[in-house]
Amino acid sequence: MRERRKFVRIPENLQISYKLMPSIKTEEIITQDISQGGLRFFVYEFVPKNNFLKIRITLKKIYFSFEALVRVVWIKEQPLAERYEVGVEFINMPKETAERLIDYIKKYLRI
Q1: Mind listing the pLDDT tens digit for each residue in 2-61?
Q2: Which one, out of 3, 51, 70, 82, has a CA that is 20 to 30 A from the CA of 22?
Q3: What's CA 75's distance to the chain center, in Å?
């Protein structure tokens, strides 16, 4: 089977905070993986597809933290775990932030 992804994902457990826009309620979660295009993580409340989230993430290995707007691309219910797996894509990420994220992923892949 041919890979359909545009970007290489790396398994990375990073703590992030997110809020469903335009809410002010913030939740803390751990990522499952990250790429220059987006993130995958689990949440305990349903987040509709195509909705926007504001996230704050810290790449601890390079001491870099940033906020980003992401769009929910897909969501899968996991009934036995009473949670949802979510895939999001970065929206309009500043060039400097994108470059730092790409460097982070490249460093991970060299290890």
Answers
A1: 456 678 888 999 999 999 888 888 999 999 999 999 999 999 999 999 999 999 999 888
A2: 82
A3: 13
